[in-house]
Amino acid sequence: MTSRTRLAFGHIRRQKVRSSFVVATFVAAVVVTLLLTSAVVGNEDFFLSEVQGLGINWIYVSPGSVSGPALYPLTQAQGQVVAERVSNLSAVAPLQFAGMAVPAWGGGELEVVGTNSSLAQIFEYRVAAGSFLLPGQGNLSWNASQPIPLVVGYGLWSPHNLSVGQFLEATITGASPTGSFSTHQVTLEVQGLLEPRGSFGPVDLDGAAFVPLGILENLTGSSALDYLFASARSATDVAGATDQIVAVLTQLHDGHRDFTVANEQSWASFVEDAIGQFSSIITLVETTLLLLSAFSVFVVLSMAVKDRKREIGVLRALGAQRSDIMALFLLEASGMSLGGIAVGLLLGTWVLQELRAHAGGFYTYLETNPVALGVYFPELLGALFAVTFLFSLVPAYQASRLEAVEALRSS
Amino acid sequence: MSSEGPVACLRGVRKVYGQGPGAVEALRGVDLEVPRRSFWVLMGPSGSGKSTLLHLLGCMDAPTQGNVEIEGIPVPPDNDRERTRLRSERIGFVFQAFHLLPDLTVSENIELPRLFLPSRGRRTLPSVEDLLDRVHLPRTLADRRPTEISGGEAQRVAIARALANRPSLLLGDEPTGNLDSVNARTVLEVLRELWQEGSTILLATHNTLVASYAQRVLHLEDGRIRSPAGGR
Asked: What is the pTM of this model?
């Protein structure tokens, strides 16, 4: 270490509290920035893959729109019209949600979805055993003497997990998950178990059980759908098919567009917009932290100028030019900021890896790949250092303007 | 630059601090020539202008009126960079409070003025060991910190530091002011040896002991030199 750096860093060492404060602000700024950046990068990738993974070229319609509630319910009949009139659709599936309390399953409520056989194609459901709803089953009506066909999502089924209930476990033996049970004066017959499918954002695609829509309509007394899902024949058909669905349903709703239509692209752009807005907030937070860090350097360096008058006077008396004094203070500021940035990077990386490894949930999506994070980080670190340098210029300049005689006299 | 002319020369130098009715005139028309290889002492009561005169000779300050020359080179009053360069190349300072920097070792303190020496490459400078020898300090002191040496040793390190750039003029402001009489004598012996080896030394002091070592004593009073100026 040269005498010049030892002079600069010697003061950092002597003023431990102040220097630690500055370094801590930089560490905090870098760690928070690292975590937020990691969260943004990780979640953007996660949500986009979720959107892309929901199904094949999917389009959905839900009742109501941003301008108001639904004036007309969505119905299976409208779904059939959509299937007939809209070209380039390979499948259309209605969805009606209903909760069903199953006392035998510990009193928990089972999410029951009324739909038809096409849903398996749209959501890419595969059966682990038995079959999904068969063609034509969707239109079945409830008959008290007949059991209701039921397809169980993977998340509801685990021979080793009581979430499926003792009843099924007790009833179904061997490798086959199929069987029947009674609840609410109806008999349900499990005709298929789905393979794991994952989730779509907060929606667990494995957490539902499927029954024929016609039967669920009979049981709930309502023909109003919660969703109408469709699948375009190809990715290039999605936009055109979406426009046609809007046109058909608007006509069926007497010219009112009281429904919402979304597809993979609109969701992807929604996610990107949301992430973009989140990024803006993060940029604001990062900028604030950056300014706070730089300001801490300014404050501590200004105090150092007062403390070090004698030293400045001695150096000037020994022949130091004003530029030498300025360089000394800038070196001190750079040492503290770069030290804080380095510690922050190490600490932040460690925290990220620990969170990802042990915290679970949201934290598993944190991005720890430095290449991915590098998209954002060099600019920020560069800005952090540059702003710190600018904030350091003022006290460094003040130090350089001290006259040797005045500095020695005041000490 | 003349190698035989005076090391420093002051002509009609006035120095006024402040302005208006509260202004203080520290020097009132001083003429002085400091010859080479001289050992002079400036004496006078507090406020007589001793330190001001040293600061002007050391290019640390500029006169309100008059001229200062170092080895025949006029000291520009408005050019801090040039004054600093002159100071770095031609002046050595010894302070009453030593002013060694605590973060540096003895060796680094001695070499400190060289950090700022613009013409370093063109000069042959004495080594730290040579400088320690000249002030009669053991070379083993080189790696110690200023806090690990005595006051007398610290002042001799400060003298070695002042000699690091081979200055033409060694200035000292109360160099024995913080020392007991034993250490003061040691330091003064060192300074006398340096003078005998060819250095030019000018000290400001209240101390008659210091004056007893000098070749010549100048008395300052109310900003004027009462002893006659000139060579020895």
From this structure: 0.69
- Structural domain contains residue A273: yes
Identify from B17, B54, B60, B114 which residue to disrupt to test chain A contact, counting A C-beta atoms within 10 A and taking the largest count: B60
Check residue A248 and give its pLDDT: 96
Question: How many Å apart are CA B200 and CA A279, to the nearest integer?
Answer: 69
Same domain, A20 and A164: no
| Locus of tokens 């003349």 | B2
**pLDDT tens digits for B137-195?**
999 999 999 999 999 999 999 999 999 999 999 999 999 988 899 999 999 999 999 99
The pLDDT value recorded for residue B100 is 94
Taking CA–CA distances from A3, the nearest residue in chain B reads B108
Best of B83, B101, B128, B161 to mutate (most A CBs within 10 Å, chain A): B101
Q: What is the pLDDT of residues B93-126, one digit of tens each?
A: 999 989 999 888 999 999 999 988 876 565 688 9
Q: Is the ipTM of this complex over 0.90?
A: yes
Number of residue pairs across A and B with CB atoms under 8 Å?
A: 73
A310, closest residue in chain B (CA to CA): B99
Mean pLDDT of A372-396: 79
In a domain, A264, yes or no: no
Q: Which of A4, A317, A322 sits opposite B60 (nearest CB)?
A: A317
Owning domain of residue A403? 3-51+269-410
Please report residues of A whose CB lies closer than 8 A to that of B113. 318-319
Strand B201-205 and strand A109-115: the pairing is unpaired
Same domain? A203 vs A333? no
At residue A194, φ and ψ (nearest 5 deg) are -85, 150
- A94 and A205, same domain (yes or no): yes
- A151 closest CA partner among A121, A109, A179: A179
- Whether residues A155 and A280 share a domain: the answer is no
Same domain, A276 and A253: no
Q: What is the pLDDT of residues B200-218, one digit of tens each?
A: 999 999 899 999 999 999 9
Q: What's the CA gap between A257 and A63, in Å, rounded?
A: 10
The domain boundary, picked from A205, A223, A257, lies at A257
Chain A residues with CB-CB distance to B87 below 8 A:
317, 319
Strands (E), A178-326: 179-183, 186-194, 199-200, 203-204, 209-212, 227-232, 259-263
CA distances from B167 to A46, A370, B88 (A): 71, 56, 8
CB contact under 8 A, B112 and A311: no
